[in-house]
Amino acid sequence: TREQAYPPILSVYPSRALVDEAFKVLVENLPPGCPVTVHSLHLSEDDNYWEAYGHYISDHRGSVSVSEDVSFGGTYTGKEPMGLLWSLRPVPGSRQGLRLRKMNVCTPMLVNISVHCGHLVEAFRDQTPLASVLTERWYMAPGVKRIDIRERGMRGTLFIPPGPGPFPGLLDLWGGGGGLLEHRAALLASHGFVSLALEYLTSGEIPTARLDYNYFEKAFNIIQDHPLVTPDRVGIFGLSLGSFVTFNLAAKSTIINPRCCVCISGFHCHPYRSMGEMIQTNLNKLHVDENNYQIWRDMSLPIPSDISKKVDMGKIKCPLLLVCGHDDQSYPAVELAEDIAQMVHAAGKDHLLTKVFYHGTGHMIEPPYSPHFRATTFMAKTKPKVILLWGGQTKPHSDAQEDSWKKILAFLQHHLYSTPNPRAKM
């Protein structure tokens, strides 16, 4: 039992920020040497609870600083200023395969930070906290405009930074899960890039041999033709299947000329007409782990030597940044990146390629402080529902997300801006 004249004080600064901005969490007015649990809780848009927590002991002044003090247990340990966000996980009893994604970027991600007496490990919502603060995490900075695009047959969303412009532009391409994902494009606009989040699939089936590259070229031109965009400063940002599209556009297109490209967990070879055909052809290479999560990486091995079965990466004409993890269980991303490097080297274009590899990192490399998803539900025609193993270990994967985002922004600013763009603040 605590005998305190005044209750503990919990502060979070800033309490309203972009999702890639760090915050500081401070607990004051505790007894010295007091064990407490600092807890974060988020209710997702699909009505699932996510939580993270760390165990701390107050110092001689009765304070706990999450930024400076060590967590002795919980969903993260050690000195981890942002562990309350990147170690978020579904609360016990949640269904398998959940993934946390912000679908409505016009509203903030609300995270409740609370402090509890003692070192707790469960039933946080049944406990009365000593103090709590509601924080807002935004993908859209103030002044960013969101515009639905339904022209020239396009389906997408355009995000425009605040200010008079002109700005550089980016075509933002996600992977084979399909649908319209806006959160990364909104965040890129918050950093000064006119960004088009493009929808090009509506299901988990991936018709790689039937992708309409005219569609992507039209989307690129929509950005390039926008009055607030500098026409010769438009790049492409792709992840997974989005990288495959990016490679094709960078190496093959005679219609568009991207200024630079960023590709995360990408592949440049796919000799199959669809993902279903790839699975049926390589059933002997389809493995599962101890949880019966599917592992797809071996289905892409060995990498074909036949140039007709992959994009000729020696034909790229712009700077390219490759980001991938050594523990990618969806695609052999590192081996694929090395094959790309060999093709680029043989063409005498080493100066165009930058590779960044991360140990302990999986396929889904997202903006910083995003929770790590080792395995999530993935829709595919071969089965109604499967859980795919993406790979990665939480701490190194989260470190990679933070470091790679800094490198990605620096790369984009270097190649798309004549001078570095000042960071947007909430």
Describe this structure in words.
- With 426 residues, the protein is of the alpha/beta class.
- It folds into 2 domains: 130 residues, Acyl-CoA thioester hydrolase/BAAT N-terminal domain (Immunoglobulin-like, Sandwich), CATH 2.60.40; 272 residues, Rossmann fold, CATH 3.40.50.1820.
- The protein has an 8-stranded mixed beta sheet, with helices on both faces.
- The protein is globular and about 70 Å long.
- The mean pLDDT is 92.
Name a few traits of the molecule:
Thio_Ohase/BAAT_N; Acyl-CoA_thioEstase_long-chain; Immunoglobulin-like; 426 residues; 21 strands; fatty acyl-CoA hydrolase activity; 19% helix; 28% strand; Acyl-CoA thioesterase 16; Rossmann fold; 2 domains; 6-stranded mixed sheet; AB_hydrolase_fold
